[in-house]
């Protein structure tokens, strides 16, 4: 009988989820045993004994050398074996065997691929607009992207910029927000001009002309994400 093969991927250091269909073929039937194997190993690596009750309340066992305390089986749909702190050595083909009380045993396989942690891609965004994706590698495990804004304007006041870092498609990116607060400096110069004598008011009126000289913005916003 052909065995169904599923495919799963996980990032090294992250979490892997290996699906297994434990739904009984008949309504009057129920699960007795769930046993997990890994190709290349002579004995099971995980099991759930539900012969005396439900799978949720069953007795769980994990092989110490391969999974230890890193794995647990979740019976709620969709049922799956979850492996935490995934290692490169966890890659391989796993087989899930489900024994029912009345129905024939069901076998399914999962081919797990572990992705090593590549360097992250660091980008700057404002809302949904990409501003800068020109990051640089500064060490084996670190990258940097410095956002520079050469000419700040009033519209940039309290603007929020988001730095995103991601190295895979399986986990959401890490983000950090930077809100820009600016101090606008203007130079005010007053020039006083004496007007001629006003016969109606008998006073000298001074005209003050305020000349505003706008300062040039030359502020660089720098922030390193992650």
Automatic annotation (TrEMBL):
Signal peptide: none annotated. It holds the Pfam family V-set. Transmembrane segments: none annotated. The lineage of its organism: Eukaryota, Metazoa, Ecdysozoa, Arthropoda, Hexapoda. This is Ig-like domain-containing protein. SUPFAM superfamilies: Immunoglobulin. SMART domains: IG. InterPro entries: Ig-like_dom, Ig-like_dom_sf, Ig-like_fold, Ig_sub, Ig_V-set. It comes from the Eukaryota.
């Amino acid at each position: 009988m052909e065995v169904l093969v599923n495919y799963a991927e996980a990032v090294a250091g992250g979490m892997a989820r290996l699906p297994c269909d434990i739904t009984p073929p008949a309504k009057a039937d129920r699960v007795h045993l769930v046993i997990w194997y890994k190709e290349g190993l002579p004995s099971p690596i995980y099991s759930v004994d539900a012969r005396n009750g439900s799978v949720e309340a069953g007795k769980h066992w994990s092989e110490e050398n391969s999974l230890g305390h890193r794995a647990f089986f979740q019976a709620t749909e969709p049922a799956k074996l979850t492996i935490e702190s995934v290692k490169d050595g966890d890659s391989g083909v796993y087989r899930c065997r489900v024994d029912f009380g009345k129905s024939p045993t069901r076998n399914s396989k999962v081919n797990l691929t572990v992705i090593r942690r590549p360097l992250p891609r660091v980008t700057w965004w404002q809302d949904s607009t990409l501003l800068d994706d020109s990051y640089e590698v500064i060490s084996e495990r670190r990258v940097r992207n410095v956002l520079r804004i050469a000419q700040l304007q009033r519209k940039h006041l309290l603007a929020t910029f988001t730095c995103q870092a991601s190295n895979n498609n399986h986990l959401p990116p890490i983000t950090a927000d930077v809100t820009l607060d600016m101090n606008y400096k203007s130079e005010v110069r007053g020039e006083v001009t004496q007007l001629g004598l006003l016969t109606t008011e008998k006073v000298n009126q001074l005209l003050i002309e305020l000349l505003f000289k706008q300062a040039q913005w030359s502020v660089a916003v720098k922030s390193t994400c992650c």
